[in-house]
Amino acid sequence: MTASVSTALLTDRYELTMLDAALHDGTASRRCVFDVFARRLPGGRRFGVVAGTGRLLSLLRDFRFGDDELRFLRDERVVDAQTLRFLEGYRFTGSIHGYREGELYFPGSPLLTIEGTFAEAVILETLALSVLNYDSAVAAAAARMSIAAGDRPLAEMGSRRTGEWSAVAAARAAFIAGFGATSNLEAGRRWGIPTMGTAAHSWTLLHDTEADAFAAQLRALGDQTTLLIDTYDIETGVATAIEVAGTRLGGVRIDSGDLPIVAAQVRRQLDALGARGTRITVTSDLDEFAIAALAASPVDAYGVGTALATGSGSPTAGLVYKLVARQDAGGAWIPVAKTSTAKASQGGRKTAFRVVEDGIAREELIVVAEGFEHRETPAPHASARALQVPLVIHGEIDAAAEGRSGVRAAREHHARVRAELPLTALALSRSEPALETRYQSG
Amino acid sequence: MTASVSTALLTDRYELTMLDAALHDGTASRRCVFDVFARRLPGGRRFGVVAGTGRLLSLLRDFRFGDDELRFLRDERVVDAQTLRFLEGYRFTGSIHGYREGELYFPGSPLLTIEGTFAEAVILETLALSVLNYDSAVAAAAARMSIAAGDRPLAEMGSRRTGEWSAVAAARAAFIAGFGATSNLEAGRRWGIPTMGTAAHSWTLLHDTEADAFAAQLRALGDQTTLLIDTYDIETGVATAIEVAGTRLGGVRIDSGDLPIVAAQVRRQLDALGARGTRITVTSDLDEFAIAALAASPVDAYGVGTALATGSGSPTAGLVYKLVARQDAGGAWIPVAKTSTAKASQGGRKTAFRVVEDGIAREELIVVAEGFEHRETPAPHASARALQVPLVIHGEIDAAAEGRSGVRAAREHHARVRAELPLTALALSRSEPALETRYQSG
């Protein structure tokens, strides 16, 4: 669909520097386990939402060092000739297990576990974190908005507020976490997400009168379209809309003003004009709190831009990529962890479960294994659901987790697991994570 | 260098819907002027920094509707057959004038002025805003950090905290606004930005001892490398570093702890060990305020990640793309502006000047023209510097503003114009814009 672009240089230089040094001292071939996890949830969130996994798998396919990438690394003396030869043939041949896309997570949850040689696994750090940190930040914000909106539909309209390719990722993450549509056409093409949108203020300003603009839009798009009624005076806009469209008009959109008051006025005016079926969409600087504050207002749909695409105050999920276990020179496995202040992490290979009792999630249970080869860790009890699935096995990428089918599966999975959350998890205020993470050695 | 990917669907659906309706009613061919500007500066910033212009020009070259894009639009019934034919041949044939990349801006400053038919100009809205909103948000944060850091070098290390392609843009924007290097290799390849980086905690954890890790790094990279000394205990880490490297060690990096205290301790320890020339780099969750708070500490260089790539609390610049003038059916020019509450804008074509007296910027002066064809508006007085330059003339893109040379020119321009700011503009606290924007009819 689009030309494949190498993703190999979407990488911090120190990864290649370490690779270079490791090829020199022989540690490059030590088998390693890296975890991707969050030390804490940003913004006092009650839960995190995994997003980006399917995108990461696609980008991993394109993580190849071609002539141009190698030339740059040689010319800039980033690595030496031995390392260039290693990179020339680079394919990730290790394995990745992780949480399903759309799954919830909590502090310490191993969203991804990457196993391979140090050489092949260390250089994926930046790509994995860039994708998951942005997409999961958007998904967490989207999930909160979706909770606040209840049954009312949400459309993602934030493309203009974030980098042009992040915009596509944002639309995808929002869809996974409960949004119904996006304004972003590339997200429609690439991921099969429903797209929407009718007209901007420039449409009205282009015409000699608001009535001309509405009439032209109705001729082109039919009377089920949505007219933007706040370019000049809202009351006049509503009157003109119904005069031109008739009472069967599909919808009006309000993009400014004090929304609870304005929405109520517009509803009253529409009803008085006989347009009882005309829907009201609001789109002005919404976030989860503004959406919640409109719960009692006569609003039929929300369009969310800035707050969605920038993670509503927490633009990055704070995920890290840490070495948690490795072989020593003799091949024995050693759990490892940084011990410096405030950034300590939990070493060892982990198997994660969500304990669900009577349909309600109670705990994130992480079993830290003694052995380190990946194997099935039996659920510690009947109510514990295993959270990790194979994503890459010996270099073979799970194609079902990529592409459009992966997005749809992630959206369904998210809806299913969000329904298990205790009620306290649905509150919007800043607080502790809704589930506690408990470690158990196994 | 990389395959060219169509950017045409990095677009909100409503732009194509409006195009479709405009081709129906004949308004598509009305000539229009759109401005990109900020209504206010986010986060109480004193000034904004234009970044992304050169990237936008490159992306504009790839704004082409190929078979795959057209098929999607047809299959999804986004537009009709007439519009598909228009898009098939689409090339932007209008003109774009704008602020130089790296220039400062203030509320109302016309960062870009796009002139063309409604049809060709309306569909560039999302792409232009995505690029400029993200890049300018990062550049504004970077400029503040650069002011706080004074003469000490700054490195951009935020790739993992933002979308994978936004990361490349962030490195570029930070370089323009005063950073000296980036960890992002793609930014090095694509934009010629110096790259840096040595080792992560995983490097130390990979080895059986910290001393083994340091020794291997020194063998591979020489003794001018920077050793990360906080994986376990910092005091031991410093002692081990000097023991292994000798007193000529290039640098140490501290990535955790209470930095003013830790940096002072590490400096004392290095000096006591005789390593008086060993530099200290700090990299733990820095932003402009943390950097300012380290001004009196013995720190030699800063690495900034999260706060840089997420705009330090203001992840988007809040720029909008608004129709400000258009022709009517008879070809006469009409200034237009939305008048709804709080989002009102200033209609008419604008020529922007910075009034600089005795080398100090005093005012942003915007002359709103009566005529609308682009022409040279003479500077209203000798101390007013014209801010707009031609970027695209009748579809011809200014190649000098693109690519590596554009980045370097933007960085130099930024340093030059930042030096003109009054001292009050350099404070980090939330306040009003440093210069007032004054409109004058001309």
TrEMBL record, chains A, B:
Keywords: Glycosyltransferase, Ligase, Phosphoprotein, Pyridine nucleotide biosynthesis, Transferase
Highest taxon in the source lineage: Bacteria
Pfam families, per the entry: NAPRTase_N
InterPro entries assigned to the protein according to its UniProt record, in alphabetical order: Aldolase_TIM (IPR013785), NAPRTase_N (IPR040727), Nic_PRibTrfase-Fam (IPR007229), Nic_PRibTrfase_pncB (IPR006405), Nicotinate_pribotase-like_C (IPR036068)
Pathway: Cofactor biosynthesis; NAD(+) biosynthesis; nicotinate D-ribonucleotide from nicotinate: step 1/1
Catalyzed chemical reaction(s): 5-phospho-alpha-D-ribose 1-diphosphate + nicotinate + ATP + H2O = nicotinate beta-D-ribonucleotide + ADP + phosphate + diphosphate
GO molecular-function term, one example from the UniProt record: nicotinate phosphoribosyltransferase activity
Domain Nicotinate phosphoribosyltransferase N-terminal: 9-133
Post-translational modification: Transiently phosphorylated on a His residue during the reaction cycle. Phosphorylation strongly increases the affinity for substrates and increases the rate of nicotinate D-ribonucleotide production. Dephosphorylation regenerates the low-affinity form of the enzyme, leading to product release.
EC number per UniProt: 6.3.4.21
Task of the protein: Catalyzes the first step in the biosynthesis of NAD from nicotinic acid, the ATP-dependent synthesis of beta-nicotinate D-ribonucleotide from nicotinate and 5-phospho-D-ribose 1-phosphate.
UniProt record similarity statement: Belongs to the NAPRTase family.
Protein name: Nicotinate phosphoribosyltransferase
Organism: Microbacterium schleiferi
